Amino acid sequence: MKTFTGRTAVITGAASGFGREFARIGARLQMKLVLADVEAKALAATRAELEALGAEVLEKVVDVSKADEIEALAQATMARFGAVHLVFNNAGVGSGGLVWENTLADWQWVLGVNLWGVIHGVRTFTPLMLESAKSDPDYQGHIVNTASMAGLLNAPNMGIYNVSKHAVVSLTETLYQDLRLIEAPIGASVLCPYFVPTGISDSHRNAPTAVAKTPATAAQRAQQALSVKAVSSGKVSAAEVAERTFEAVGADQFYIFSHPHALGNVERRMEDIVALHNPSDPFAARPEVREILRASLKSEDRSS
Ligand SMILES: NC(=O)c1ccc[n+]([C@@H]2O[C@H](COP(=O)([O-])OP(=O)(O)OC[C@H]3O[C@@H](n4cnc5c(N)ncnc54)[C@H](O)[C@@H]3O)[C@@H](O)[C@H]2O)c1
């Protein structure tokens, strides 16, 4: 997709973090913007900021895990702007815990937002984009799904998140291949950030009651502490990642990384697979992190 000005972008998770930065760049490029998020107040603040820059904005409170809410978002988008060109299926939540200890509600919440949210976005918007392409010989579209480095690796104590993000990588690679198969003028990219300062460590602000009311396990508390530290000390900003993402869309680049140097871990994982080695120690480069995690699990064990 080479032209952004005057085209329409739909962004989920637009009220914070990466989503808000995509929206800011979209406004700068004079795109028409459709902003969706579950947090009404933060979304209204984002809309006000972008309108003050002169952007045309449609704002909708949407829970991406609900098919009917994404379908209503698509209808409202078509009614207001007549076509969709760029879709960011970006809303997501973080979670931790030993994989056998996570509750059914944990699984349903995190897979609901991180995976079903992307599935609904792809299911709903791709056919509308293909339809627009039929009647417009100059049509160009692109879909960006936000996964994570956790979609290419499997660190311990964050199983649901890993599962959700691996599935988003798989879905997006397949989407790319399917679009190429039918020679559609629509590109696809998967964004795999590492630790970047955003609101992700505070994801429980949006958790359903069944998750919010269940006391966190020792493993979840330990993971939460690690996540706060890792995310808040990230040196690459969400704004920089959003810039890179727009450049990748313009260049039809599929994989987008915030921290390319972390790809050594992915390389090691692939080597393990083809050499039939058991999975490598994910903490090999930073054994102190494993020790902090183990120590906090042991001390929590003693205190519970
Ligand atoms: N920040 C990081 O270090 C990091 C690393 C890897 C991947 N990611 C991914 O980036 C994406 C964006 O997260 P972020 O880091 O900007 O965090 P963030 O918390 O700042 O933004 C996420 C947004 O999603 C919204 N959201 C949550 N549940 C929703 C729902 N059910 N429906 C609609 N909106 C919902 C939140 O209200 C929030 O505005 C997520 O998919 C996350 O998994 C982030």
Protein described:
The chain is of the alpha/beta class and 304 residues long. It has one domain (8-303): NAD(P)-binding Rossmann-like Domain (Rossmann fold, 3-Layer(aba) Sandwich), CATH 3.40.50. The termini are far apart. Helix 3 packs parallel to helix 4, helix 4 runs parallel beside helix 5 and helix 7 runs antiparallel to helix 10. The chain has ten helices and seven strands. Bound molecules: nicotinamide-adenine-dinucleotide. Nicotinamide-adenine-dinucleotide (NAD) is lined by residues 12-13, 15-19, 37-39, 62-65, 90-93, 113, 146, 148, 193, 195-196, 198-200, 203, 206, 231.
**The named CATH superfamily:** NAD(P)-binding Rossmann-like Domain
Distance between the termini: 55 Å
Q: How much of the polypeptide forms β-strand, as a percent range?
A: 5-15%
CATH architecture: 3-Layer(aba) Sandwich
Domain module tally: 1
Low-pLDDT residue intervals, each spanning 5 or more residues:
none
Task: Looking at this protein, list some descriptive labels.
304 residues, alpha/beta, Rossmann fold, seven-stranded parallel β-sheet, 10 helices, binds nicotinamide-adenine-dinucleotide
Give the topology, please.
Layout: E1 8-12, H1 17-28, E2 32-37, H2 40-52, E3 57-61, H3 67-81, E4 86-89, H4 104-135, E5 141-146, H5 159-181, E6 186-192, H6 209-212, H7 218-232, H8 238-250, E7 255-257, H9 263-274, H10 287-303
Parallel strand pairs: 1-2, 1-4, 2-3, 4-5, 5-6, 6-7
Bound molecules: nicotinamide-adenine-dinucleotide (NAD).
